[in-house]
Amino acid sequence: MTNNFEIIRAGVNTTFQDQGRSNLYHIGIPFSGAMDNRNYCLANKLTGNKLNSPVIEFAYQGPHLKYTGEKINIAVTGDVVFKIIKSGTEIDGNCYESYQIESGDQINLISTNKSVYGYLAIGGGLDLKFQWNSCSINTKANIGSNDGKKLENGQKINILNINSDQSKRKTNYINSKVENIRVIKGPNFNYFSEEGKKIFFEKKFTVSKLSDRMGMRLEGSKIENIVNTNIKSEGLIKGVIQVPADGNPIIMLSDHGTVGGYPKIGVVASVDYDRLVQISPGSKVKFKEINLSDAETLFKLYEMETQNLLLQI
Amino acid sequence: MIKNISNLGDAAVYCDFGKEVNKSVNSEVIKYFKALKKENFESINNLTPSYNKLIVSYDLRKTNFKEVKKLIENLNVNENQDKNNTKIEIPVCCDDQFSLDIKRLEEKLKINRDKIIKNFFSKEYFCYMTGFIAGMPFLGDLDENMRVPRLETPRVKVPKGSVALTEQFANIYTFESPGGWNILGNTPLDVFDNSNEVEPNLINPGDTVVFKQINIEEYNSYNDK
């Protein structure tokens, strides 16, 4: 029998993700891929996987899995409360630490703590379908592994091969919570009234429950448009902040539609993307203006920090 | 010609070809798109052509705005003029069960069903861009007297294959999706095939499209062939 995980409870929004797929915007397919890239890479490194290997991404409540097969390493990253159940005994799991599990063991990913996404890496190769070099599930277009659909109760995740080096790996990492998100002004910044621009950079917005992998909807003081609430449809990228006629900003996230016709007030700086996606509904966000060269420098530093974290494992 | 090049955030270049939406401006956008695609620069990870803009996304780990801007400015677009755009025929059935918004179209356009259909099928269309949902083509231009705004309240589910109109454009819903366009008919042809990784789109920017009216019997037997 193949080594496998049986899904006892799938969780809220559980998908396979990797680094995503590129060069497909022009046909209408977004990047997709793990929302929080740093935590995705850390999960893989902790299990001895290549950094671009598929992982299980979950939001809020994660899956409850039962393992059958030869010994295997797993690791969880994010800010996740989880338990490992070994022959009836529950162990509290620590994120950023690998665990060796055996046949019959269970992993119960109970919830993400004041954050959105968590990652479970499995030390080995998963039996997944790749489309355009990526297993990432895009549930909107039904692209990727698992026929492009969320994981469901009762399904099995088959393991093709298991990493031979299963030594314990761990690191100390604390996800910094942010409220200030740095933003570069967008091409339609001047579509908005002076008051609207002020609101955008000075007031706090609340993350709406309607947020998902496609976009983060925000609620707060309305941002008034004085030019045109529609533009001719044009390309979008992740991090773009559009303001439709109702005056509430929407931030494009990894599964976003590839073109859109609402004015772009700004774009989230790449340095803050991983942290942005982790801001949970009901929390507040405040935008802070940043110029291009500072954004480039800060991203370089963030990347160096990620590389250092990976080297420490 | 590109009128202005600016940054869209810190990981994309925003090439602005002006405010006009017409075939000649869009052909310029597509020329740049094809030239960049052909060069296949390693640091560029996405290109999004639209009516009058081209967005060039890049990997900020490998390059930056200044470098990509230079690549675009130094691009030799004229060498890459591709005259081999294909002409594609799309069968469309306007049976009552498919033309969900025909009454609205008659009311808004103040022309009758037969004339709407005759006008729609008598033209050649140009594909300005594909996107929003995977493979959806934006085809223009509809005649001035055929232009209607979006539905006031978009549908939660537009059936797959719906052929719909808004303003100067027609489009095809490549799979079931929410949408606010005025539905005139339905095609039995798969316009997007996600199992084909090389050419998933039947229609690509720059292509010419003609619609061919089919009746319900032809529609029903279309995929039996």
Distance between the termini of chain A: 33 Å
User: What number of structural domains do the residues of chain A give?
Assistant: 2
Shape of chain A: elongated
Q: N-to-C terminal Cα separation of chain B, in Å?
A: 46 Å
Strand segment tally of chain A: 21
* Number of DSSP E strands of chain B: 13
Q: Widest sheet of chain A: strand order?
A: 7-6-9-4-1-12-11
**Helix/strand order of chain A, N-terminal first:** EEHEEEEEEEEEEEHEEEEEEEHEH
Oligomer: heterodimer
- Number of helical stretches of at least 4 residues of chain A: 4
Biggest chain contact: A-B, 41 and 48 residues
**What's the story with the biggest beta sheet of chain B?**
7 strands, mixed
Low-confidence stretches of chain A: none
Structural class of chain B: alpha+beta
Give the SSE layout.
The complex is a heterodimer of chains A (313) and B (225).
Chain A: E1 4-9, E2 15-17, H1 37-46, E3 55-59, E4 64-68, E5 72-77, E6 80-86, E7 89-92, E8 98-101, E9 106-112, E10 117-122, E11 124-126, E12 156-162, E13 180-185, H2 194-202, E14 204-207, E15 215-219, E16 234-235, E17 240-242, E18 250-252, E19 259-260, E20 264-268, H3 273-277, E21 284-289, H4 292-311
Parallel strand pairs in A: 13-21
Antiparallel strand pairs in A: 1-4, 1-12, 2-3, 3-10, 4-9, 5-8, 5-10, 6-7, 6-9, 11-12, 13-20, 14-15, 14-21, 15-18, 16-19, 17-18, 17-20
Chain B: E1 4-7, E2 12-16, H1 23-39, E3 44-49, E4 53-58, H2 65-73, E5 87-93, H3 102-109, H4 113-121, E6 124-130, E7 137-140, E8 155-158, E9 162-166, E10 169-172, E11 177-179, E12 182-186, E13 208-214, H5 216-221
Parallel strand pairs in B: 5-13
Antiparallel strand pairs in B: 1-2, 2-4, 3-4, 6-7, 6-13, 7-10, 8-11, 9-10, 9-12
